[in-house]
């Protein structure tokens, strides 16, 4: 009964509207000119029905606007254009024009830079000053990372480790951004070697695949293979720092491919709403394995996406160590003092293959790789600046590279000779008391090993 009454009431209302304003259905079918709708207040200042006025194609837009303006006059002289919508989150002004936001602003967002391609400071550039000690420490670590990648990549090709990823062409991003966070704590090459070989000294006890490093001592969360899962996690960590009133922030690193994952958007929105002190650092190196950025998104890179979530951001030259250092230093200050998330997009290029399982020459031109390897090498550019300040010499360069190579080769030898974690370590460090189902799994594994000893590595203690 109630449903029939509601339907009858709705039909009467539609008939009354047709009698007063005309049948809207012919216009919906395209046989009548469009209409302009304007709301006008009902008696007593309350909002009433929408008034409808038809205009033909010959009517000028000025006449139409004037008619709507006249129709929308209120008793106190206000028009709809003068009013605002007190919407949750902020007041929104009205306008009579129908305006769609453009897909882009037309001009691309500029990229912050301090050093030109020749390692010279750009006139008028503003950057965070670095001491000689800091500058040399950054350079030494960039050379160490470059050399380590070369040696460990060769070790994988020799079958000594199972997998590796290089940072060729992106050394400035890794070292300079870390230097802006803390200059005291370093991840030593031996720790990386232990993790890659999965020996007993590995903090993860051999449970992770190579180059998935982590350190509780350095507040360095272990690398996770699933793409972009670390972003919401970083927001949670940052919010906990905020709740504890710590003078610190969280930073999470990800590539351009990670921005195509849902966790990227969830993480940014989460951080903005909670006002979490977190730095989202996007390493936009042009490629998500074999997928170029031109096939990933149409927006102006990544930094523009921060605005949609209410997050401040900056685009920086990822091959300029001073620019990266200055940008992250400023981002850290804002994140902590203002309690806000910051998005940093570093433009760079992945000179190396995605991994030892990849041959990037199959999907990108070799001359493009060579151009970025030589003309835009971040280490060479930064070295020119350091030498231009009379802080470095060719003799020191030769000695550094020789020493670093010896240290890395020794680290590999030590890691390779170190014993492997025993089988029992597979089931520890999760529960305080190992539950019965894990005990059963361990026993099943041991029984399988005893039945098929030839299929099990002999260097892992049972």
Molecular structure report:
It is an enzyme of class 1 (oxidoreductase). Heterotetramer of alpha and beta chains. By secondary structure, the protein is an alpha/beta fold. Among the domains are: 290 residues, Rossmann fold (3-Layer(aba) Sandwich); 26 residues. 40% of the residues lie in helices and 11% in strands. The protein has 14 helices and 10 strands. The strands form 4 sheets. The chain has a 4-stranded parallel sheet, sandwiched between helices. The protein has a two-stranded antiparallel ribbon with strand order 1-2. Strands 3-4 form a two-stranded antiparallel sheet. A hairpin with a 2-residue loop joins strand 7 and strand 8. Helix 4 packs across helix 5 and helix 5 crosses helix 10. The protein is globular. The protein starts with a helix and ends in an 11-residue tail after the last helix. About 11% of the residues have low confidence.
Q: What strand order characterises the main sheet?
A: 5-6-10-9
CATH hierarchy: architecture of the domain at 132-421: 3-Layer(aba) Sandwich
N- to C-terminal distance: 77 Å
- The unreliable regions are 24-57, 63-78
Mean pLDDT across all amino acids: 86
Question: Within the CATH hierarchy, at the fold level, what is the topology of the domain at 132-421?
Answer: Rossmann fold
**Overall morphology:** globular
Q: How many helical elements?
A: 14
CATH class of the domain at 132-421: Alpha Beta
Largest sheet: 4 strands, parallel
Radius of gyration: 31 Å
Helices and strands, in order, run as HHEEHEEHHHHEHEEEHEHEHHHH
Strand content: 5-15%
Class by helix and strand content? alpha/beta
User: How many E strands?
Assistant: 10
CATH H level, superfamily name of the domain at 132-421? Thiamin diphosphate (ThDP)-binding fold, Pyr/PP domains
Helix content: 40-55%
InterPro entries: Alpha-ketoacid_DH_E1_comp, DH_E1, THDP-binding
GO biological process, one term: branched-chain amino acid catabolic process
Domain Dehydrogenase E1 component: 141-423
GO molecular function: branched-chain 2-oxo acid dehydrogenase activity; metal ion binding
